[in-house]
Write a structure and sequence with these properties.
Elements lengths: L1 E3 L4 E5 L4 E6 L4 E7 L2 E7 L4 E6 L5 H12 L5 E2 L14 E5 L1 E5 L12 E3 L8 E5 L2 E5 L7 E5 L8
Parallel strand pairs: 4-7, 9-10
Antiparallel strand pairs: 1-12, 2-3, 2-13, 3-6, 4-5, 6-8, 9-11, 11-12
Length: 157
């Protein structure tokens, strides 16, 4: 399934969890802060910025997290394996042209941006930038719904 998205947001909801997807408006170097140092990942115009909320939550919080990276170039922090802070992360973010959800990784501990922590209900969904579209593979309309939002706050919607 291809969904047009050039600006604004695509919200994909399962029963409790969700993904919020936006596109990068520019090319930039995204700093990834790890225990061992700093790595820069190239982000290209049109790449996906995906926030995952495996336990649900407020989509406006996800939008704010997205904009910290998309607009303000906030570095991502990668926690070391076994860090107690992982359990407190309610939302995580990945930036890449193609992102696959996974249930077997610990939140906030993987520097690879082509995967994202997910609940089981959304784990079958693949997301890829495809021209002006977001290509969704594995979308199950019986278990998932999608909503498109224009740029700006999601609170009033």
């Amino acid at each position: 399934m291809n969904i047009p998205l050039s600006c604004g947001y695509l919200l994909i909801r399962g029963g409790a969890s969700f993904f919020l997807i936006a596109r990068s408006p520019d090319t930039f170097a995204l700093p990834l802060q790890t225990f061992d140092g700093e790595v820069f990942q190239g982000v290209h115009r049109g790449d996906l910025i995906v926030v995952s909320a495996p336990e649900g939550g407020d989509p406006e919080q996800a939008r704010m997290l997205c904009e910290l990276v998309r607009t303000y170039r906030q570095p991502l922090v990668v926690l070391p394996k076994g860090h107690p802070g992982s359990a407190r992360l309610r939302m995580v973010l990945s930036v890449a042209s193609c992102i696959m959800p996974r249930t077997d990784i610990v939140r906030g501990t993987h520097p690879e941006q082509d995967v994202i922590c997910s609940s089981g209900e959304l784990a079958s969904l693949g997301m890829a930038a495809f021209g002006r579209y977001v290509r969704l593979s594995g979308f199950d309309p019986g278990r998932m719904a999608f909503f498109l939002y224009p740029p700006g706050s999601l609170s009033a919607r």
